[in-house]
Amino acid sequence: MEIKSDTEKLILEAARKVFTEKGLDGARMQEIADRANINKAMLHYYFRSKDKLFESVFKAAFNEFWPEITKSINESANVEDFLKRAISSYVDLFMDKPFLPIFILSEVNRTPDRLESLIREGGVNPHLIVEYLKEQMDLGKLKAMDPKELLVNVISLCIFPFAGKSLIERMIFQGDKESCESFLQERKKSIYEFLKPLIIANN
């Protein structure tokens, strides 16, 4: 098990905040060093570049998120419970790490091989979820459909409001940040309620 030093933990937390506020392109290593209360030379001792630091923040975020998703397959009482937990985990992740959706979308277009490597190194195995969904369809718990299509639909419903948060906040909520935040938090319930009649068998 990897043990991080207190300094490294401070750097990662400071970097997470700066990346959240300013994104990958807008973040500056000097600001991250200042927030971690260290000098820039020490920051570069731990992380040679901004990209390397961002990769570490990204991996840490997925290491928090994905174990809960995979664990929910075994611990959920049924597929409905699994979907609720999966959706809730995605929304909670993006509420806590709002820079991730934009990063994911930009990396998909810019360096898809790099993103795939980062995700796999974080222990993400989409095929496990696809096989689980297919099994539930074979058991008659879910309506018959392409399980890959279902997985992509769930992820899309979760990720888009966060990727387009600035536009949604301005255009739909007239700049009301608090109302927009409440709306995003309610996505945990509304996404499931939207999907339920479409995918749950005998609903």
Can you lay out the helices and strands and say which pair or pack?
Blueprint: H1 6-26, H2 29-35, H3 40-46, H4 50-75, H5 79-96, H6 99-110, H7 112-121, H8 126-138, H9 147-163, H10 165-171, H11 177-199
Broad shape: globular
Determine the fraction of residues in helical runs and give it as a percent range: over 70%
Strand proportion, as a percent range, falls in under 5%
Low-confidence stretches: none
Biggest pleated-sheet summary: none
State the end-to-end distance: 44 Å
Mean pLDDT: 87
Tally of alpha and pi helices: 11
Q: Which structural category do the helix and sheet elements fall into? A: mainly alpha
- Radius of gyration based on Cα positions: 19 Å
DSSP summary, beta strand count: 0
List SSEs in N-to-C order: HHHHHHHHHHH
Question: Could you explain the architecture of this structure?
Answer:
It is a single chain. By secondary structure, this protein is mainly α. The protein contains 11 helices and no strands. Helix 5 packs parallel to helix 9 (147-163). The chain is globular and about 60 Å long. It starts with 5 loop residues before the first helix and ends with a helix. Residues 5-65 form the HTH tetR-type domain. Keywords: DNA-binding.
